[in-house]
Amino acid sequence: MNWNSFDFFPLMGEKLNSQNTMSLDFSPSNTSLDEVEITDTSTFNLFVFDQLKTSEKKYGIGGYLEHRAIYRRSQVFATAESDFRDIHLGIDIWCEAGSPIYSPFDAVIHSFQDNASFGNYGPTIILEHDLDGKKLYSLYGHLTRTDLDSIQVGQKLEKGEKFCHVGPFPENGDWPPHLHYQLMWDMLGNSGDFPGVASRKDLNKFSEICPDPNWIIGFDLPE
After folding, report:
1. What residue stretches are annotated with the M23ase beta-sheet core domain (predicted)?
2. Three-state secondary structure along 22-38?
3. Domain 3-217 classification at class level
4. What is the rounded average pLDDT of the residues 114-135?
C-alpha cells in the first residue's frame, strides 16, 4: 500500500507535530512506571498529564507494537493460557477528555458497542474504508458513551467529519483520557470490538493484520 498517495484529514482536527505532541513511553524500560500505582486511574491520570503539562504539550503519542508494562492492571489482557497480551497493536493519543475526533477519510460505520469492563475499550466505534478498492477498518476506543447514541451501522461519514470524542474515566474503560486508534485489514469476524493488544506468540499474525496507524497520523516518532 502506497500510503503517501492519500491525503488524510488530521485525526484530532490538527496535525500532530513536535510543537504540540510528545512521545510517551509505557514500556518496561521506563522505570518511572515502577513508582506509579497504575491500577488507580486517578494516580495513573496524574502521571500522564503531569508529563504533558511539564512539556507544555497538548498531546502524548506512541505505542504501536510497544511492549507495555501497563496491561497487568487488568485481567482483560490475560489469555486462557495465562499468557498476558502486552504488545500494543494501535497508537494511543493521550489528551483531554472531550477532545473531538475526525474521520481521516471517507468511511461507513461498520459497528460500535460499549466494551464496558475495567481496562477495556469502553465505548468503541469501528469504521470501514475503501482504499483504492481495498477494505481497511479503523477502530476508535475509549470514547464517550453519548457518541454511541447518535450513530448507526451503515451511516456514511465524510473525510474530516467529526463523529466522536475522547472519553473521561471511568466510562472510557477506566483509563486516563486517550484515543486508541488502530487499523485492521481484516475484522476476523469481530463486531464493535477487536484485539488491541497481542501476546508474543500471536504477534506475527496481528502485526500483518494491523498496519502502523502512523501512516495516517503522520507524526515523526523518535527512533
Report:
1. 87-185
2. EECCCCCCCHHHHHCCC
3. mainly beta
4. 95
pLDDT value at 130 more than 90: yes
List the one residue out of 182, 93, 192 whose CA is nearest residue 137. 182
Q: Which three cell numbers stand for residue 84?
A: 498476558
Residue with the bigger pLDDT between 73 and 207: it is: 207
Q: What is the radius of gyration, based on Cα positions, of the chain?
A: 16
3 state DSSP class of 126: strand
Closest among 23, 70, 81 to 221, alpha carbons compared: 23
How far is residue 113's CA from residue 104's CA, in Å, rounded to a whole number? Answer: 21
Q: Is residue 222 predicted with pLDDT exceeding 70?
A: no
In the chain, where the domains are located: 3-217
Say if residues 55 and 213 touch (Cβ distance below 8 Å): no
Nearest by Cα to 166 from 178, 149, 183: 178
Residue type, 68: R
Rounded distance between C-alpha atoms, residue 194 and residue 90, angstroms: 11
